[in-house]
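[Meeting: bench + compute handoff]

Bench side (C.D.) handed over the final construct sequence. Compute side (W.E.) agreed to return the predicted structure before the next meeting so the bench team could plan truncations. Sequence as handed over:
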Amino acid sequence: MAPKGSKGGAFKTVAENRKARFNYEILDTLEAGLVLTGTEVKSLREGKANIAESYASDEDGEMWLINSYLPEYLQGNRFNHEPRRRRKLLLGRREINRLRSAVNREGMTLIPLKLYFNERGLAKLQLALGKGKKAHDKRETVKKRDWNREKSRLLKQLG
């Protein structure tokens, strides 16, 4: 069942980690499913979630999303969920092994970039394998962004 109000092939973005691309150098991205309860899905459909401070971790051969915030569903009586509980990520065994080796050996981090509903109405998480940027790398990113903005302004004025 497609999300309400969506056109064919459109994704409904619920939460986005906008600072991730500034704080980390993104090397690889992948899509993972989430194990959610009913009230969590209803809360997500309302569009109130936060993944800005969350990360993914490997524990006992499984991947977990830690510190993500999904507020309680208002109409979800005693069966409601905890807002900051750990949520299991659905990945293949090979993907888990590849990510585990990259995190352990190369010192990388698993960062959630976007939480969304796909065209089939399933909640998905876009995960990124990234390396933390140093302060001088962040300054370089700001310089490039400002220069591109200034360049587009100049081209707009001249042409």
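W.E. noted at the follow-up: The chain has four helices and seven strands. C.D. will use this when planning the next construct.
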